[in-house]
Amino acid sequence: MVNHAKEIEDSILGACLTDRFALEDVKERLTPECFYNDWNRFIYKAILECEQPDILSVEERLKDMGKFNEIGSVYIADLTREASMNVEYHCQILIEKKIKRDVVDLCQNIQSKAMNGVDTYDMLDDLNRAVDGLDKGIKSKESLTPSQIFEREENKPKAEKLYIGLSQLDNGIYADTMHKGQVELTIADSGHGKTHYAMYKAQALLKRGYKIGWFQLEDYDVHTAKYMATHAPEQMDNIHICHSLYDIEDIKRECRIMKKEYGIDYIVFDYVQNIECNLNLSRTEKVEYISKQITKMAKDLEVFCHVLSQVTVGYQSRSGWSQEPSYGDVRWSQQLKQDAHIITSVFRPSKVESLVISTDSVKDWKENSIPYDSVFVKQAKVRHGKQYWNRLHLIHQDDGLKPYINENKVPF
């Protein structure tokens, strides 16, 4: 099968040189690489670089490119006599021919790597990326005006906001965040409940119809599965839990598969310090690299990424509620803090001896007595929007976290 069509290339170029409306249509659909014939490819590049392309201006541009003497004025003039009357259909033919050529090149490249002993997973990663690129089409605008961006967001938003279903989260802590393409970093000392909070959010999102990917980098996947079966039994199979991958490249590959096959909206990494990186870097540099990869992936896949991170609070110099994790406690890497669109902290007063009143109660930040099993979530930092300092008050029960209902029946 011939994977090029010179006559159609000629007819499209003829239309570009004689019909400015046809030119605008072609520019929206084709890149120079869609033209297989070398002369035609250079002519199309020259057309794109001319403000108002016609035969004379294109010839001048080809002279600047050092290609005019090779192509000649007769060849260019002949193109105008072949102008296409069906530009849209002919453009689609060139696109399909281009995809077929790319597939052939891809197969030859993968075959060469397989025969030369390239790492199997690296080869598969290259294959996945290439295939993803093929089904995205040939031409897409990389720059848009604000009006075009607003129109896109109204019809098919990239930065779609995810809603949890609890006002204190949707309109409070996450009022200006929780958009696809963003990253949340949740920090907590060991045992304070960062995983339980992530599961609480995940089950709430499942109930609202979102699909979730969960990387179980600590503990066992069966615990997360049981939690979802208890709290979101009808939607539990919309969360895909992976417990066997630790390397960031393997995780990225699995995320792409989850997005393509299941359409996931939200990904949890529990927790970031357990993600590995097969590069000769220091521990801090590895965390920086991993953070950047997760941030890029959130945007590329149009998903919201929830990253959990353990921090160690300086108990020697802090007491009481001052031991609640803060922005400054993220010491592993400045990159984690810089990349996150929002940082949330999770804190259990019962884990701090000076805050325990009895086996039934602990002190809140105002010295009031509250239930012993209280867990608090706070917005520690937000990149865009208002800083909300209110804490979400949850209660840890045998089957997980639930909003605390105070005397006024307000879960906050």
- Profile the largest sheet: 9 strands, mixed
What letter string, H or E per element, gives the SSE order? HHHHHHHHHHEHEHEHEHEHEEEEEE
Portion of residues in beta strands equals 5-15%
The average pLDDT value, as a whole number, equals 87
Uncertain stretches of 5 or more adjacent residues = none
Structural class: alpha/beta
Helix segment count?
15
* Name of the CATH architecture of the largest domain: 3-Layer(aba) Sandwich
By CATH, the topology of the largest domain is Rossmann fold
Estimated helix fraction: 40-55%
- The CATH first-level class of the largest domain comes to Alpha Beta
**Ends apart, CA distance between termini:** 67 Å
Write the layout of secondary structure elements.
Elements: H1 6-18, H2 20-29, H3 38-49, H4 55-65, H5 68-71, H6 73-80, H7 87-115, H8 120-134, H9 146-155, H10 167-173, E1 183-188, H11 194-207, E2 212-216, H12 221-231, E3 239-242, H13 248-262, E4 266-270, H14 283-301, E5 304-310, H15 334-339, E6 342-347, E7 361-363, E8 369-371, E9 374-382, E10 391-397, E11 400-403
Parallel strand pairs: 1-5, 1-6, 2-3, 2-4, 4-5
Antiparallel strand pairs: 6-9, 7-8, 9-10, 10-11
Concise description?
This protein is α/β, with parallel strands linked by helices and 412 residues long.
Labels describing this entry:
15 helices, Rossmann fold, elongated, 45% helix, 9-stranded mixed β-sheet, DNAb Helicase, Chain A, 412 residues, alpha/beta
